[in-house]
Amino acid sequence: MKVNIDGELKHLFAVWYENDVVKLIDQRKLPEKIEVFEAKNSDDIAYAIKDMVVRGAPAIGVTAAFGLAMAKKNKEDMEEAVKKIGMTRPTAFDLFKAINYMKANNFDLGAARRYSTEISGRSKKIGEFGNELIGNGSRILTHCNAGALAVVDWGTALAPMRIAHNQGKNIFVFVDETRPRLQGAKLTAWELGQEGIDHAIIADNAAGFYMRRKEVDLVIVGADRITANGDFANKIGTYEKAVLAHENKIPFYVAAPGSTFDFSISNGDGIPIEERGEEEVLIVNGKSLGPAASHARNPAFDVTPNKYVTAFITEYGIFRPEDLGRMKSLMDKDLFMKDVPASTA
Ligand code: MRU
Prior knowledge:
Elements: E1 2-5, E2 8-11, E3 15-18, E4 21-25, E5 36-39, H1 42-50, H2 57-73, H3 78-86, H4 93-104, H5 109-131, E6 139-142, H6 158-166, E7 172-176, H7 183-194, E8 199-202, H8 207-212, E9 218-221, E10 225-227, E11 232-235, H9 238-247, E12 252-255, E13 261-262, H10 279-282, E14 283-284, E15 287-288, E16 301-304, E17 311-314, E18 317-319, H11 324-332, H12 335-338
Parallel strand pairs: 6-7, 6-9, 7-8, 9-12, 10-13, 12-17
Antiparallel strand pairs: 1-2, 3-4, 4-5, 10-11, 11-16, 14-15, 17-18
Helix pairs in contact: 1-2, 1-3, 2-3, 2-4, 2-5, 5-6
5-S-methyl-1-O-phosphono-5-thio-D-ribulose (MRU) binds next to α2 and β11.
């Protein structure tokens, strides 16, 4: 991803490995400042994933892969390290893909590097396929952050927008703010701004307003886990955007690499949904919003049924939910994916 640092556009990754340390852009600090978090052992990695220093399914997977390679170099108890890292965020399937990949490759650093390079190359492919769905003048709505920060580079939902913009297409992005953690307002808006992509942040409950006024041409979101029938989990609030898009006859696309597809689960009811602490809902910028005695509920993801999905944008091409069997056969022939046994937490 390109980032403007002191007037100069620099290329940054969300996660990388340097001098036996896993380095992460601390996403809790954006957009105010670009700060690098250094993880030196598996405890730091588990903390960084759980506390959302790094977030977004593919980036969580890459962090876990580098983290396990580092743990092996540190001569840590690998069973413990796998357990700790595997318990951080239950919904993102990439986490378990990455752990299994590293287990199958003896926690080798070269394998972790390969995993990261593959994920970022695949997200570029997603961008190239997705770009074909974007016309000049398209107005696109997205939810949460499925950009380079969530992947390592390029992004999933944002990759097609990056490529469309780079090709000179004139696009406009509606960015859902994405309560409670505001990944849209803080991270997606920041990424789009760095590359000069025209956008506006909207309150989460404003999407229907613009859809009904025919100001949204298509929706592109990412995913945390996609099941065999095409149901998928993504950031809380995605489901209602999908229903609204359907009601307003707006195409609704889900962009994700093969590593997010969990073909071992037949439908969305089987996806474990992470519930996070109530303070994320109750406290904004250190200030309590509601009455002191009130509690909150905080599901981090929801499940959108396949009937609301126009198509999945993947590195293998674009597939309607009913065609996912065809995608699975391509995945089965893919050496990188083959290394990854299909199992889950
Ligand atoms: O809780 P988060 O910020 O990790 O949730 C992220 C999302 O829901 C993204 O849309 C998803 O991981 C896809 S990222 C390419």
